[in-house]
Design goal:
Strands 1-3-2 form a three-stranded antiparallel sheet. By secondary structure, the protein is mainly α. Helix 1 packs across helix 6. The relative contact order is 0.17. It has two domains: 67 residues, no CATH class; 49 residues, no CATH class. A hairpin with a 6-residue loop joins strand 2 and strand 3. The protein starts with a helix and ends in an 8-residue tail after the last helix. The longest helix is centred in the last third of the chain and has 15 residues. It has six helices and three strands, in the order ααβααββαα.
């Protein structure tokens, strides 16, 4: 079942003009306080038993330390995807619901730039 769905999504997105000619995407860079990254993301999002795990390390590696050492930056490589997900969250959808709605949006609009990273 899921293979058929995936195949139809891939075909849907590869047969678009945008996919063939590309689309320019600018990046969004957020500056985030060290306390937020270290305490909230590093400590509160993960149970103490999972500190140092692969998932914990990957989450923290999304943030780049600033040159002056005061805070972090995070780069959003696909602003359209980011804004869609933020809007879906704002409407009360769960992350699991957003995943499905996002795939439907991607397929029906034919916007290949809505790729995942």
């Amino acid at each position: 079942m899921w293979k058929k769905k995936l195949t139809s999504l891939i075909k849907c997105n590869t047969d678009t003009i945008v996919n063939h000619f590309g689309q320019t995407n600018t990046h969004i860079i957020f500056s985030i306080s060290s306390l937020i990254v270290e305490k909230i993301v590093g400590d509160m999002f993960f149970h103490p038993d999972y500190h140092g795990s692969i998932t914990h390390e990957r989450a923290l590696n999304l943030f780049t330390s600033k040159n002056d050492g005061d805070g972090y930056t995070v780069t959003i490589k696909n602003p359209l995807q980011f804004h869609l997900v933020v809007e879906y969250l704002g409407k009360g959808l769960s992350f699991r619901q957003i995943e499905e709605v996002f795939l439907i949006t991607k397929c029906l609009t034919g916007i290949a730039s809505l790729r995942s990273y």
